Amino acid sequence: MVCFSKAEPDKLVAARIGNAGGVVIGLGEGETYIASDLPAILEHTRRVIFLESQQMAVVTKDGATILTLGGEAVSPEVQSISWDPVAAEKGEFRHFMHKEIHEQVRSLTDTISGRVDFDTGHIRFPQLKLKTDFACAINKIFITACGTAAYAGMVGKILIEKLARIPVELTLGSEFRYSDPIVSPNDVVLSISQSGETADTLAAMDEGRQRGATLWSIVNAIGSQAMRVADGYISMQTGPEIGVASTKAYTAPLVDLYMLAILLADLRGAIDGPTRYKLVQDLRRVPDLASQCLDREAEVEAVAHSLLGVKHALYLGRGINMPTAYEGALKLKEISYIHA
User: Fold this and answer.
1) Cα–Cα separations (whole angstroms), residue 139 to 164, 172, 186, 217, 272
2) Cα separation of 29 and 51, whole Å?
3) Residue pLDDT, tens place only, 273-284
4) What DSSP character marks residue 80?
5) FRET pair for 215, CA 20 to 30 Å: which of 9, 264, 303, 322?
6) Residue ranges covered by each domain of the chain
7) Which fold has domain 107-295?
8) How far apart are CA 76 and CA 148, in angstroms?
């Protein structure tokens, strides 16, 4: 929430009460901004402060003072954001979702870039802080997410169990804290969230922390709560996603989870070197295959026109394709309001 008083017209007070809803303070030259998300202020400043839960900011044009809701001073971390504000503009595309569908080739390339050594066939996730001893000691992984992220998590469950031979349980973020999960200190709670501010997913992370689990997150929004509270994280590296219906923030974590499964399998000795090398080399093909799909947009549009009168749709999939069938049905419901 943001408050102002007529008695002090040059001052605003912004507060973050709980996990739901982010507050970003942008620091400019002789001006200060308050926003709920980064894209709103990126064209004005790249220096930002993210409020934590139970914090407030007293804001003037000269800067911001960060306090707890109880009035105690806080020394905040000022972060520099690398996102290009042009990435948050629609450009030549019909709408943001259309733009973000076509950004998937770039986002998949960025997801892989810097994390894969194709010469040696190794995966690197430095922000995950994963060591061999801990990888070998993992007893179970709980994946928590909501909506599209949960469907990506379903694919992750299949990949991690198949390659790394670690039991994985997927629970909706809204249900995890109410399910009385059996969690041990050798377990990992892996949360997936585009925004990093999904209230149910953050609550699931809190529950995992209270039960002694290690917290990991796969998140897109830089500096978000899910990124900050995790013991280690994987950044989706897709850039801002403005469209309400997720696109590139579904396909990018699929690649992240594939790479995570390979890394865990390698550290645990569940796969040999030649197998790991082949799995890693397959990543080379991903951006080009995505590009080939997007080149068929006219064909897809023709199919869409032929289905304009349809009132119900049934998506089918088996094994690793079943979660994408769920995601396809969700997209049809979200965008066209056709029952699926």
Assistant:
1) 11, 20, 5, 18, 21
2) 20
3) 999 999 999 999
4) E
5) 322
6) 2-87, 107-295, 307-340
7) Rossmann fold (3.40.50)
8) 32
